[in-house]
């Protein structure tokens, strides 16, 4: 049977059809443009689980170490990698890739082949994050340090050892997680949204007449000369410690006034601490006072030193 007629639309019909087409196009564009959105709460929980899981491997491997020296640091110390570094990297990598398959991430141990799935199934941790927002997945880069203070780990100086995860959005640090595996303590913060309850000044911190400055064991001599020259008229106490994560937490807890580092430092060492201090109202910059960024970039080195404080940041920038 053949129909010779045609459907005719009046002006109102044309207008309605055009409106429906525009609404359909808008719907498709909105759906497509937000298809990779990720909730900040999901990013935070993944970061906490990854840091904790990596830390468990760090603790469990401490008596079964194989140590390989990758080279020398600029300060002349061995740049070591251990079995624990590699296992922690693999489990953190697998966990992040499973939960956030489309997110870019950068690790200190990026050259490692991870064949066996070590990540298992874990429950989401409880957090006190009361608000939630979404960020574009394509804007996110996750930085991980599977074992900070490796040299001290091999010397059994476990108090300095941490595992760290940082979430940067458009290069800006948003989430920082630092886990102390040997005390099973997790510190986290989300810039603008909150932080873990244990991120507060220690109750027994008495105000000292001296400015406390924490510096690295690895280049104590170099920083001593800088402090002697630039703090001639300011009484100060130099605190020697290891691990960028440990030192950032000492600033966050108010145990010291500043963390200074005058040589180059890798961004996976500092991103989590940067996010935590920023969330607490503090600052972390290079030694010239410039903000640090964490894009998915080829150059992972911050070449211009580091100043981290909770208060009076410019005072330290002006002195270094």
From TrEMBL:
Domain of life: Eukaryota
Ranges annotated as spanning the membrane: 12-29
Pathway: Polyol metabolism; myo-inositol biosynthesis; myo-inositol from D-glucose 6-phosphate: step 2/2
PROSITE patterns per the UniProt record, alphabetical: IMP_2
Biological process according to GO: phosphatidylinositol phosphate biosynthetic process
Keywords: Hydrolase, Magnesium, Membrane, Metal-binding, Transmembrane, Transmembrane helix
Catalytic activity: a myo-inositol phosphate + H2O = myo-inositol + phosphate
Major subcellular location class: membrane
InterPro entries: CysQ/Inositol_MonoPase, Inositol_monophosphatase-like, Inositol_monophosphatase_CS
E.C. numbers: 3.1.3.25
Keyword Membrane among UniProt keywords: yes
Protein name in the entry: inositol-phosphate phosphatase
Biological source species: Ceutorhynchus assimilis (cabbage seed weevil)
Lineage, opening ranks: Eukaryota, Metazoa, Ecdysozoa, Arthropoda, Hexapoda
């Amino acid at each position: 049977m053949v129909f010779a007629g045609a459907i005719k639309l009046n002006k109102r019909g044309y207008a309605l059809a055009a409106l429906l087409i525009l609404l359909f196009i808008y719907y498709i564009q909105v759906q497509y443009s937000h298809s990779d959105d990720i909730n900040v709460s999901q990013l935070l929980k993944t970061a906490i689980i990854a840091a904790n899981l990596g830390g468990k491997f760090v603790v469990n491997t401490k008596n079964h170490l194989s140590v390989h020296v990758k080279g020398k640091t600029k300060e002349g110390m061995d740049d070591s990698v251990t079995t624990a570094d590699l296992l922690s990297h693999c489990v953190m990598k697998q966990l992040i890739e499973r939960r956030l398959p489309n997110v870019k991430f950068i690790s200190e141990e990026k050259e490692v082949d991870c064949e066996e799935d070590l990540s298992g199934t874990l429950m989401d941790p409880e957090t006190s994050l009361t608000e939630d927002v979404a960020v574009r997945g394509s804007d996110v880069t996750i930085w991980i340090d599977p074992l900070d203070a490796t040299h001290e780990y091999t010397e059994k100086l476990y108090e300095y050892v941490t595992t760290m995860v940082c979430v940067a959005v458009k290069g800006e640090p948003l989430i920082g997680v630092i886990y102390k595996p040997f005390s099973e303590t997790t510190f986290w913060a989300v810039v603008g949204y909150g932080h873990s309850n244990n991120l507060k000044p220690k109750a027994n911190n008495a105000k000292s007449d001296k400015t406390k400055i924490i510096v690295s064991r690895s280049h104590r001599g170099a920083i001593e000369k800088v402090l002697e020259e630039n703090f001639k008229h300011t009484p100060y106490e130099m605190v020697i410690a290891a691990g960028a994560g440990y030192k950032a937490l000492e600033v966050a807890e108010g145990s010291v006034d500043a963390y200074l580092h005058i040589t180059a430092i890798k961004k996976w060492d500092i991103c989590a601490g940067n996010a935590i201090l920023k969330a607490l109202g503090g600052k972390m910059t290079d030694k010239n006072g410039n903000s640090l960024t964490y894009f998915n970039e080829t150059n992972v080195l911050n070449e211009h030193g580091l100043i981290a404080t909770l208060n009076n940041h410019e005072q330290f920038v002006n002195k270094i």
